[in-house]
Amino acid sequence: MVKLQLPNPGLEDRIPSHAELEVLEKEEADSRPKWDNKAQYMLTCVGFCVGLGNVWRFPYLCQSHGGGAFMIPFLILLVLEGIPLLHLEFAIGQRLRKGSVGVWSSVHPTLKGVGIASMFVSFLVGLYYNTIIAWVMWYFFNSFQEPLPWSSCPLNGNRTGYVEECAKSSPVDYFWYRETLNISTSIEDSGSIQWWLLLCLTCAWGVLYVCTIRGIETTGKAVYVTSTLPYVVLTIFLIRGLTLKGSTNGIVYLFTPNVTELANPVTWLDAGAQVFYSFSLAFGGLISFSSYNSVHNNCEQDAVIVSVINGFTSIYAATVIYSIIGFRATERYDDCFDRNILTLMNAFDLPEGNVTQDNFEQMQQLCNMTDPATFATLKFETCDLETFLNDGAEGTGLAFIVFTEAITKMPVSPLWSVLFFIMLFCLGLSSMFGNMEGVLVPLQDLKIIPSRVPKELITGIVCLVCYLIAFIFVLNSGNYWLTLFDGFSGSIPLLIIAFCEMFSVVYIYGIDRFNKDIEFMIGHKPNIFWQVTWRLVSPLIMLVIFFFYFVVKVNEELLYSVWNPSYEDFPKTEKVEYPPWVYVIIVILAGVPSLAIPTFAIYKAIRNHCQKKNDRAGLIATSETSINGNLKYSS
Amino acid sequence: MLRALLLTLSVVAIAHAELCKPDAQNAFKVRISIKTALGDNAYAWDANEEYLFKAMVAFAMRRYSSKSTTQISNVLLCNVTDRVSFWFVVTDSSKNVTTVPGSEVEAAIRMNRNRINNAFLLSDKTLQFLKITSTLSPPVEPSTPVWLIVFGVVLCLIVAGIVFLIISGIRKHKKKNKESTERENLEEKVEVTLENGIPCEALDIKAGHVNGVFAADDERFTSL
Questions:
Q1: In chain B, % of residues over pLDDT 70
Q2: Among positive and negative, which fits the CA dihedral A387, A393, A399, A400?
Q3: Which class does domain B15-129 fall in?
Q4: Interface A-B: count of C-beta contacts within 8 A
């Protein structure tokens, strides 16, 4: 066993000792906020982990990487990577009782950059994540009418047909790209602010402010609804979906295993990345949440429970989504077939009902024999169920295009639309709680803001600043900016931070000390599984994923998809290169959080070195005031 | 007498056959899909339905040109297939053996499309006049878009929530301040200064140990 331990003088002074923790626990003299009960804590963590990615990223990965076979790498990496990292964050937060900046500065002053990097990443992700919630709210507001506005194309000027852009693509595409985003044809063409989206953005930030106004005092109440409602809605959709025609096609397609995919390294890479991002690790939010727990809370059990729930939710959501996608694909297939039947019927004046899906081929041959000349002029579409099933997109395309189309085909569509968008809203909002926590608590820990300022005001100012910056995402080119932020601010920096976290706890804080802490907190030492994963397996997996991710991202051509009605292959999206100034933005997005770690390390090292020179002049008696004997820790 | 009658009838029949045939001038093809529209409630297309069709076309012509000269006998149907598609043409009784111009027929049918559809319980898609395009009906739009109403409701709830939480926060803060000032007046705040970790008062305590070695032996001290 590698027992490397880097020298860490002064660690004892920076962290509360076990005895002090016992005192804090007994006398409840801790000034930190506390959870009202265990359920709030669990629901908040589950809500933070379970987000939009479980609904719209995992099903797509599952289906495109060999269906049921994808479960194998997913579950293996869940156990080897997700659970250990989660347990680590819970334990360190509960032990050191601070937010991310506080925890890492306590471990070693030069590691403050890790906490600051977490804060930056939480901030950047929070900016664009709430815009997605704004889009969800827009669709939610529009769901209270029958027929739904995305079920049919609007008419053109002289009412002889449909608007051209809509006729060429589809009503759902048109509603998403034109009536919601009003998207431009490139990221350089910023356009103006779309007022309807701005109103929805105001709503989204307003709701977030209401729920986080007093920290966990208010979010603890909100999570009773936001964390449980998605499961209710998923169950309703499952029951509804299973009664629709063709749903079983979708589920079978999703889970049909293709074992050859396991040999493809990209499958394992995607599984690892999905596990990692799905757990919302390295944002700092989970460390904060567990720091509000009592000292003897069983964090090992919590980590396992939250991980299992997260994995189960991914699989459950995938089943529901693909039952509905199966229904949609079958509907499309039937429509395509019906159009072919109509073509044949109209050309040969056959009575209705004579040609069905079963005897279509026979009738085709019959007609060909009777009148080959007319038959040759007929154009038949190719109808393939698998092509329609493969159409299941990921991300915003799944939620706002594929799923909304499926909903228009169900009876009582406004009801299903409202339910679906409430579910997405709750999933997104509960993840935003963790993001806000990851931004606000480090600000507190950094002592930038005087403690006299009330929490409500700080939260308000942070929400206001984020709201104003998020104006970029409601321009005509907003969606392109969002994809940019999504791709670069929340990917590579998180991997770096997570690796640094593991390394710091195991080798700088000391795995022996950590083991003793956990023994103190939960009563028994962590077993051999945790030892192996913390010291060796998980950091190795993180390194491999980071390496491959980095290589792939650097080597791939940076193209983005553009919605261009004058593109020759319209309605397919056009792939366009980014303009050069965007590369600067990408470097800032990915670079600033990542480089915060070494920058702060060097800054602190230099400052310590200078301070040590000054300190050598004689002993300085430290005079500290205390009130009623309770010491306040400085720095 | 009889022979003359037979002759006129045959002439009329031939004339009709000439006027109504596929792709004839001013003739329109109609395609009807009853089973698609009505499913189990579908009726069969028979001579009575054809009579109704002729009547509806005559009705449309009468309404359009507002001269009551078009009779049911002016509408000719031919080439009825099992698909239920056929060609029809409208003759002009005032001018011998001619058909009403296609544009007039088209305009008349367009004007009364809704009435014709409803007579057969069909729609624009299931009762198709192949050369006549239908005007699409615009969707019903309410004066205030629905989404603005829902947005207004949600925004009011949010503002109410923020105001309530801020006010209750201020009230709690004031109560806590009042309580803590009351508590301060009741007990004395003990401020303890620490010197190198040892409370200063412990150092000053007069009942401390006196070190005999340094006991005040003033004579030992050098006098100035």
A1: 75
A2: negative
A3: alpha beta
A4: 103
Q: Give the long-range contacts of residues A185-188, CB within 8 A, separation 24 or more.
A: A185/A562, A185/A563, A185/A564, A185/A566, A186/A477, A186/A480, A186/A562, A186/A576, A186/A579, A187/A477, A187/A480, A187/A481, A187/A484, A187/A560, A187/A578, A187/A579, A187/A582, A188/A477, A188/A579
The DSSP call for residue A634 is: -
**Model confidence, pTM:** 0.85
What is the C-alpha radius of gyration for chain B, rounded to an integer number of angstroms? 51
- Is-cis flag, bond preceding A149, omega within 30? no
Return the residue of B nearest to A137 by Cα.
B151
CB contact under 8 A, B133 and A160: yes
Contact assessment for residue A492 and residue A554, using Cβ atoms and an 8 Å cutoff: no
Mean pLDDT of chain B: 79
**Does residue A31 sit at the B interface (CB-CB below 8 Å)?**
no
Among the partner-chain residues A214, A346, A624, the one whose CB lies closest to the CB of B194 is A624
pLDDT for residue B78: 85
Neighbours of A618 (CB within 10 A): 6
| A-chain residue closest to B193, CA distance | A625
Please indicate if any CB of chain B lies within 8 Å of the CB of A618.
Answer: no
How far A539 CA lies from chain B's nearest CA (Å)? 42
How many CB atoms within 10 Å of residue A120?
Answer: 22
How far lies B207's CA from each of B130, B192, B193, B211, in Å?
118, 19, 19, 12
Measured distance CA(B140)–CA(A625) in Å, rounded: 74
In chain B, where the domains are located: 15-129, 141-171
pLDDT at B158 (0 to 100): 95
CA A141 from chain center: how many Å?
23
Mutation choice for B interface testing from A199, A429, A632 by most B CBs within 10 A? A199
CA distance A557 to A277: 23
| B43–A contact, CB cutoff 8 A | no
**pLDDT band at residue B199 under the 50/70/90 scheme:** low
Is the CB of B146 less than 8 angstroms away from the CB of A145?
Answer: yes
Q: In this predicted model, what pLDDT tens digit does every residue of B65-90 receive, in sequence order? A: 876 677 888 888 888 888 888 888 88
Q: ipTM above 0.90?
A: no
Residue B202 sits at the chain A interface (C-beta within 8 Å): no
Could you say which of A142, A454, A623 has the minimum Cβ distance to residue B194? A623
Q: Cβ contact (<8 Å) for A140 and B150?
A: yes
Do A181 and A192 meet the contact criterion of CB atoms below 8 Å apart?
no
Joined together, the tokens standing for residue A46 give 């589950």
Q: What is the mean pLDDT of each run of 10 residues along chain A (635 residues)?
A: 72 83 75 87 94 90 85 92 93 91 90 92 94 96 91 82 86 92 90 94 95 91 94 95 91 88 87 89 92 91 94 93 91 90 85 83 86 85 86 81 91 94 95 93 86 88 95 93 88 89 91 92 92 91 87 82 85 86 91 90 87 66 50 44
Q: What is the topology classification, in CATH, of domain A18-559?
A: Amino acid/polyamine transporter I (1.20.1740)
Checking if the pLDDT of B190 tops 60, the result is: no
Cα three-residue angle A539-A545-A548, rounded to 5 degrees = 135
**Cβ of residue A361 closer than 8 Å to a chain B Cβ:** no
